[in-house]
Design goal:
The structure is a single chain. By secondary structure, this protein is mainly beta. It has one domain: Sandwich (Jelly Rolls), CATH 2.60.120. The protein is built from 2 helices and 9 strands; from the N terminus they run βββααββββββ. The strands form 2 sheets. It has a 6-stranded antiparallel sheet with strand order 1-6-3-4-9-8. It has a 3-stranded antiparallel sheet with strand order 5-2-7, with no helix packed on it. β8 and β9 form a beta hairpin. It is globular and about 45 Å long.
Length: 150
Amino acid sequence: MPLHDHPNMSVFFRLVYGGLDYVGYDKIEEKFKYNKFSENEYAELLGTKHIIQAKKTKQMKIKPDNMLYVRPSTNNMHQFIATENSCFFDICLPNYTSDTCLRKITYFKETGVIDTSLKGGLTELAYYTTPPVMPANFKVTDVPYKGYYN
């Protein structure tokens, strides 16, 4: 899952099976943490691929049954890279909406680390309008449930 945000949302995440490499970021400026801008300004940020600063907060390997909690201003941006076939479950509160930029999903591209003196480093990220494209050989397959229920 490419680098994306969960503006003004809380998310409960659980890896059901597989393995993921996880990198989390926090936006620095309050305006960008909470998407405090108009729809026109949001369109301009996307159109110009505006650069913001973010602090890398977490880098870890996620294993089955790991849970993560994303808050509106903490670990609000992240990316996952599957290290094997994986399945995860998210509960987003409230859910994304296309009605307002307050809770629109936005993708970002890392443009470079600008300050390594902070733990995790300060990074520049560009607004990126292109949603992910699934690989040509991507397919969804039903698999038996591998967990247990008490």
